[in-house]
Amino acid sequence: MEKISETYDTCPSEALNVSAISQSVAHQLRRAHGQFIQRFLHYFSVVNLRPTEYSVLAMIAENPGRKQSEIAAVLGIQRANFVSLMNDLEERCLTERRNVPNDRRSHALYLTPSGESLLNEARRAEADFEADCLERLGGMRARDQFLALLARLFG
Amino acid sequence: MEKISETYDTCPSEALNVSAISQSVAHQLRRAHGQFIQRFLHYFSVVNLRPTEYSVLAMIAENPGRKQSEIAAVLGIQRANFVSLMNDLEERCLTERRNVPNDRRSHALYLTPSGESLLNEARRAEADFEADCLERLGGMRARDQFLALLARLFG
DNA sequence: TATTGTTATACTCTATAACTATA
DNA sequence: TATAGTTATAGAGTATAACAATA
Fold this sequence. Notes:
homodimer, Arc Repressor Mutant, subunit A, disordered N terminus, DNA-binding
């Protein structure tokens, strides 16, 4: 309960004026991203995966044997930053790097059995997360519309 | 131009399968945020402001004299992280912290004249950025719809 | 020469805990 | 006791430059 006083010397604790930025796509996207991360981590806490890590596992599962740089590129992650990400997933025994027969520069990426197993758990978390989004948005039509608008903006 | 070869030993460089995550709100939001930051920095390079810094300046301009913690809270930034942000803006002579008469714990935030002046430039950058968004989204109706859906998701 | 993976580095943003001085 | 600002620390994410091995 907030304390109400009759007189103010300097700083009345009224609601702040947010009109200038509340209509701003930039500001709302900044705020939304913070919320998104928190909510994602909540749903994915059981598998202990960050958004990026989940995308990597899902992408490797759909495209086993692809090169690091291919997976990185399609996810919009730079090669240099992808290395420590893969090191981490490999240390957790979720993925492995195999040699490519005719190109000794490349590493082909695969999920390990426990990587597959964790991904299955993660997919259930993802389904819950998506169901949450669906409910907040108000149905599949709104969800598709949102994704379509997001794609127009940043696709 | 991509090189096309007739035979593959191991790794045909075909398009990757992205079907599993392309329908995912989580994945699309992750990608969108990266694009958003880059595009924002492009438009705001003339004033050298990050999304967070712009929001802070705009919020102080609309609510001069408010306490650090009030501005931080309304922007969803933690007090602890807000300190270095304000230190930075103050070093750039864009904002100032003044004492509050009846509460020696608090700092009241104000824009300096050069802060006001930079904010005016930033508002032009923001207008350009928003115009870009508007065009990509396909008009004000789509823009309002997008903001409404974003608010449903994370408001 | 170009590509693949890698290392190193730096900066932004976020999260948490704890301190200080005030209230 | 609670609040405002602060300090310190840690981790994710991103950006850039450069290097070795290989193509």
